[in-house]
Amino acid sequence: MIAIDTNLLLRYFIEDDIQQSDLVDRLIRNAIDSDENVFISDIVLCEFVWALRCAYNADKSDVIRALEEIYSAILFRFQNNERFKYALKKFSQKSGDFSDYMLGYIGFNYHVRTTYTFDKKLSDNDYFTLLS
């Protein structure tokens, strides 16, 4: 298995730098040809979403489609499939950020009672409690 960072994942999807995108495409093809998986960490997923939304001004629907494509690709492996699936589902349905839902699920995985936040967008999420 190999791992890629946020910049490589962005080049794979955005293809805004032809030379770098070609290098990433070659790397991915080599992994496929070698029957290797490509690991994408939680941090890379969160940075990927942030970059698409903030640096590339992508619509939320476009980000969701990209995440769904990543999640459904047999090639990719993740730190925790259920966490990714949960965060993607909540991000698709609610107004919180993808990284918030990842954070809430991480707390759940570590048996925290709740994660306190000031973010009102998370007030209806079972893993968060508004601090007021």
Q: What portion of residues is helical?
A: 55-70%
Query: How many E strands?
Result: 5
Shape: globular
- Along the chain, the helix and strand elements come as EHHEHHEHHEE
Largest sheet: 3 strands, parallel
Strand order of the largest sheet: 1-2-3
Explain this structure.
The chain is 58% helix and 11% strand. With 132 residues, the chain is mainly α. The protein has two domains: 79 residues, no CATH class; 41 residues, no CATH class. Helix 1 packs across helix 2 and helix 5 packs across helix 6. It starts with a strand and ends with a strand. The model has no long low-confidence stretch (mean pLDDT 97).
Q: What is the structure about, briefly put?
A:
The chain is mainly alpha-helical and 132 residues long. 58% of the residues lie in helices and 11% in strands. The protein has six helices and five strands.
Write the layout of secondary structure elements.
Elements: E1 2-3, H1 6-14, H2 18-33, E2 38-40, H3 42-55, H4 60-72, E3 76-78, H5 81-93, H6 98-109, E4 115-117, E5 128-130
Parallel strand pairs: 1-2, 2-3, 4-5
Helix pairs in contact: 1-2, 1-3, 4-5, 5-6
Comma- or semicolon-separated keywords:
132 residues; mainly alpha; 2 domains; three-stranded parallel beta sheet; two-stranded parallel ribbon; 6 helices; 58% helix; globular
